[in-house]
Design brief:
571 residues, alpha+beta, 8-stranded mixed beta sheet, 7-stranded mixed beta sheet, globular
Length: 571
């Protein structure tokens, strides 16, 4: 492919290719790629009736998914050959779900396709951003009302006559952010000036707000596809109440009425920007993904189910119903990796998202995303080739997050230590037998009730708030409760003497009550367990938490001790 630096001369043919795709991601316009061409060294080529973009990403080169109505499969084949000849790994981004499906159909087992949450676009109906109706957007209307307290304000379109005033205002905006200025903001400012320099040539649309004659906010965007307008830039003076909400609302009202939706681009993972975009209650997300050529791939719950079940049963001996329950309710196409060899699924490993909540100091806690490693296994005939090690190494690079695991048995700890894992979570084990004892009379003051996933998570997080522990989101906790119920167990809240005492998750196995997790005041813990043993007509209760290990390149986490709490592992 003959890649050349993107220039204005490419606008006609590349815009035609984007129109043929009719995609709804913010990157799918010529103008957006042209404005960022110097930051990412964007280059373009034609191949098999498609357009392809190449750009800098994470220290290497990445490519767009083929653009247009040509032979996309042939383009990807050519990219694979080109990358192999140049000792490169083919990476493509962004991909939509339709692209992921085509890639898996055309090149099965050859690409790991990963969702990129920080790059998801926020999409709103034009009606919502225009009217700002309802209680949830009341605060936006209030801010706009305060802005309008001064009558001398107006909206006008950006034209060649006033665009230089917008440039001047952008420098004022820069100066107002001097204390938090960074390279990313500098790059965005340069890109904004590219937009103003080529405003007419790129077919951009803009609007501005004046207050007492001074520009205090402006917005720039363009039509994205047949039903969506995309906003590329929105700048306002933050010290003027309502400046951001009013440019948002006025721009939607004056420039976007012929479109059903407005795409306001991604948040790049910045907490403040995410909060701001979420505050407008997005109607949908454009979920974008990246693909990397790899022999280790993200598995699909349906397409790969048969191979998953075979490996799982031969490795762990679990019932097929239990495996299917996991695949149906916990697995997604984004949390299990696998390796195919000779056309057969040879090894698997789940990597479930969670958070490690730990103390950086007595007054400072931090929440770090981690992946919990579960069901790492290899078919017997493929063992001895270090496939599990390859999966773990790939997971480290794919997610760039610490990995947490609970060894299936203590004898495996040395194996994981050789791979760089270390103990970070303390274990606990006990067994309580009834021995025909009578339940103490004061247990009449014991109250046991059902509990929701939301309440369980809240109580669990509160109980361990002073410790280092693994925190699960509500969906994960809900799965754990449902899985426990599937096994014939219960999850309950315990009150003793009219005071909250804790929570217990347990199931029955033969003549034993097996505790999955217990969060209980020590003074009443044994009493409650004995009560549950008697109520369920079994002879003993068992709890065996081996603790857990972590692999991390986070220096703050690497200094932690080995007394954290893992507990609930959601297997």
């Amino acid at each position: 492919m003959d890649f050349k630096k993107l220039s204005l001369s490419d606008r006609e043919w590349l815009s035609k290719a984007f129109k043929e795709d009719d995609g709804n991601a913010c990157e799918f316009t010529f103008a957006n790629n042209f404005m960022w061409r110097n930051v990412y060294d964007v280059m373009a080529a034609k191949s098999h009736g498609c357009g392809v973009l190449m750009y800098n990403s994470d220290g290497g080169k990445a490519f767009s998914f083929p653009i247009g109505n040509g032979d996309k499969r042939a383009v990807i084949s050519e990219l694979l050959t080109m990358c192999e000849e140049n000792n490169m790994v083919l990476r493509m981004s962004p991909l939509l779900d339709r692209d992921r499906q085509l890639l898996n159909e055309w090149f099965p087992g050859m690409f790991a396709v990963k969702e990129e949450r920080n790059n998801w676009d926020y999409v709103y109906t034009t009606e919502k951003l225009t009217k700002l109706s309802g209680k949830k957007l009341q605060a936006k209307r209030n801010h706009i009302a305060r802005f309008k307290d001064i009558d001398d304000w107006s909206y006008e379109r950006i034209t060649p006559d006033n665009k230089e005033e917008c440039r001047k205002m952008s420098f004022e905006w820069m100066n107002s952010n001097e204390g938090r200025w960074n390279d990313g903001m500098e790059a965005e400012l340069n890109v904004l000036h590219e937009a103003l320099d080529n405003f007419t040539e790129l077919g951009l649309v803009g609007g501005l707000i004046r207050r007492e004659g001074r520009i205090v906010a402006f917005c720039i965007g363009e039509p994205l596809n047949s039903d969506t307008f995309v906003v590329h830039f929105e700048k306002a003076m933050a010290d003027i109440q309502g400046a951001y909400p009013i440019i948002n609302q006025q721009f939607a009202e004056h420039e976007c009425q012929q479109f059903t939706y407005i795409n306001r681009e991604e948040d790049t993972g910045a907490p403040g920007l995410r909060k701001a975009k979420m505050s407008y209650r997005p109607d949908m997300f454009v979920k974008k993904m990246s693909a990397i050529r790899s022999d280790i791939v993200l598995l699909d719950p349906e397409k790969d189910r048969e191979g998953i079940i075979e490996i799982w049963q031969k490795s762990f001996g679990d019932d097929e119903k239990l495996i299917n329950y996991y695949v149906d309710n916990r697995m997604t196409n984004q949390n299990m990796l696998g390796i195919y060899m000779a056309g057969k699924l040879a090894a698997i490993g789940s990597f479930l998202p969670a958070e490690y909540c730990f103390k950086k100091s007595e007054s400072d806690k931090s929440n770090v995303p981690v992946r919990y490693v579960y069901a790492l296994a290899t078919l017997p005939e493929f063992r001895g080739q270090k496939l599990a090690v390859k999966i773990l190494d790939f997971a480290k690079k794919l997610w760039r997050e610490p990995l947490v695991l609970c060894p299936a048995e203590l004898s495996l700890a040395a194996y994981y230590e050789r791979l760089g894992f270390k103990w970070a979570f303390a274990g606990e084990e006990f067994q309580i037998s009834m021995d025909n004892e009578n339940i103490m009379a004061d247990l009449e003051e014991l109250s046991i009730t059902a509990i929701t996933a939301r309440e369980y998570k809240q109580l669990r997080d509160e109980a361990f708030s002073d410790e280092d522990f693994i925190c699960w989101d509500e969906d994960a906790v809900s799965y754990a409760i449902d899985m426990n119920k599937f096994l014939g167990g219960k999850t309950v809240k315990v009150n003793y003497q009219k005071t909250f005492a804790g929570t217990v998750m347990y199931y029955l196995d033969n003549n034993s009550l097996v505790i999955t997790e217990i969060n209980m005041q020590q003074a009443v813990k044994e009493k409650v367990i004995r009560y549950l043993v008697q109520e369920n007509s079994v002879s003993k209760a068992l709890y065996n938490n081996l603790g857990g290990m972590i692999y991390t390149e986070n220096k703050e986490m690497d200094k932690l001790g080995n007394e954290g709490y893992l507990g609930l592992t959601l297997g």
